[in-house]
Amino acid sequence: MKFAFFRRPRRADTIEALYGAIVAQARAPVFYLEYGVPDTVNGRFEMILLHAGLLLDRFSGEAAALRALGQDVFDRFCQDMDDTLRERGISDTKVPREMRRVAEAFYGRQAAYRAALRDPDAAILPDALRRNVYAGASDGGAERLAAYTRAASAALRQQDVVGLAEARLAWPPADAISSPSGS
Fold it and tell me: 49: burial class by Cβ within 10 Å (0-12, 13-18, 19+)?
């Protein structure tokens, strides 16, 4: 019984560390300055969705304990989004509807990016990123963001599960990724 007491805070620390790593990477200035991601609430939201989806996709094929950790990270994401909506002045009666939209956005993006990462057609991922992250606007960075997304997915797949379970997460350096065309 007392061992469960000691595990609980560590698990909470791990969840916070993993979610913190997602948010920190999503907010890296390079995405907004060099990749052309809109530096807006929606642009930042899309980058959090992208990074959270990549990590949770990595957890999806693992043992139940790691999948449960992924669920806890998703729950932390939802709590952060709920808190953000309330801070922005969304009324208590409207928060559940907005949270449904957040969940739909998350699951939709995760499915689109997962399918695009597995599809041999290299144009599918940049197109999905153009639609979502760049909101269909002139982007100039969708190809580079697609290259980064592929590198991030590969890097997560190479990380051992023990390290991931202990919140040792290593994203590829976004500033070192160039678009496939070399621009």
Answer: buried
pLDDT of residue 2: 47
Measured at the CA of 152, the angle between CA 168 and CA 169, to 5 degrees, comes to 5
- In the prediction, which pLDDT does 140 show? 72
The interaxial angle of helices 64-87 and 2-26, nearest 10 deg, is 60
Asked if 132 and 142 count as a contact pair (C-beta separation under 8 A), the reply is no
Cα 108 from Cα 152, distance rounded (Å) = 19
Banded model confidence at residue 5, pLDDT cuts 50, 70, 90: very low
Residue pair 80/89 in contact (Cβ under 8 Å)? The answer is no
Query: How many residues are listed for the chain in this entry?
Result: 183
pLDDT in tens, 86-106: 999 999 999 999 999 999 999
User: Could you tell me the residue ranges of all domains in the chain?
Assistant: 7-172
Signed CA dihedral, 141, 143, 144, 145: sign only? positive
